[in-house]
Amino acid sequence: MRTAIDLVDSGGLEELSMRRLASELGTGTATLYRHLPSREVILVEALDLILGEIAPVPPTRAGDWRGEIEAGASALRKTLLRHPALTPLFASSRALNGPHALAGRERILSTLQRAGLDERQTVDAYLVLIHYVVGVTFTEAGDLARTGDPAPASVRQFYAGLDPGTLPATVALAARLADRDAEREFAFGLRLLLDGLERMLR
Amino acid sequence: MRTAIDLVDSGGLEELSMRRLASELGTGTATLYRHLPSREVILVEALDLILGEIAPVPPTRAGDWRGEIEAGASALRKTLLRHPALTPLFASSRALNGPHALAGRERILSTLQRAGLDERQTVDAYLVLIHYVVGVTFTEAGDLARTGDPAPASVRQFYAGLDPGTLPATVALAARLADRDAEREFAFGLRLLLDGLERMLR
DNA sequence: ACCTGAACACCGTTCAAGT
DNA sequence: ACCTGAACACCGTTCAAGT
User: Contact B106/A141, CB-based, under 8 Å?
Assistant: First the structure.
């Protein structure tokens, strides 16, 4: 599994072929099938393993649910970005029933319940938070996986070069659309969501 | 392109092979390369084409930015869910510079600006909205693409069967985690975000 | 009983050869 | 000048044959 994750991290999903993994391990492809049933299962297990890299946020300072959620969301994002090619697997909930995924989900659910949300609110809040983190991280990971270069200059040029007659707002905002600060943007959206949850509690 | 989209819709991404597409069109694979440079470009163009299915939300009733954003977000989600296998492509921003993607982005940006947000707020709001819709839709599309069956009963059983000692919140919420209402959840998160934006405007 | 070379049925892409 | 059959270099997976 460690070799498989290294392959995916270094060259993307398509770098992990059964032949390459086998030769990296000094064996043949047929041997791999004695330990794991398919390439897909390797990927699913790899995702759960990297979720295990997230250090559980300890439920310290009694009642700081907001701080715990912020820390957890940020840790999830950073962990996924360390393995951008594996991030898309986060979409299939079938891939999210491994031990580490379950432990992480449990921590979020219990934090939200301790905050005072009722059952329905807890599940709704859990889902909205996960979906937001997934959306941000997928997009970031997609750009990162491409070749590692976001190249803000060329993006700005692309936007600025569009027809201002048909796309006036896009052209006017070209500089801001190109020079992004992923960290700040992530915090902005998370704050919006957490403010909303906090208001629900009052 | 229409044949390519039909193939992807009916059997997932892996159903679209150059050989299958060629034979569906009554020709050989080499011929395809006289019209399109690669399989990847076919997929990128397919995504932009389906974005064109979204009817532009007319900026009617002066100043109802919130209604326009809600309608646009809902239309984007529904359109992507009609082509679940293509949804993951929405992650790569390279795939999002086709004419329909640009037109859609322009509409959102101009709606937010007309609402009264400044430049930075407009871009931040645009990104947070897109990321949320992407996150929700990816997850839904991933489940949908699997075999079409979410099978709430088996999901509930899975959650309920976990160890209540280590995963108490998950087990307690098993029924709610299994019996989901995607439409309501989507509206819940969108409301949280729009409430936040509305408060920024005051 | 355990392992694996070689095969099967596929891929995306290219190019020499055909018309 | 335009088209494409056949090849190249790969895949995931299986199984008969080896030890």
Answer: no
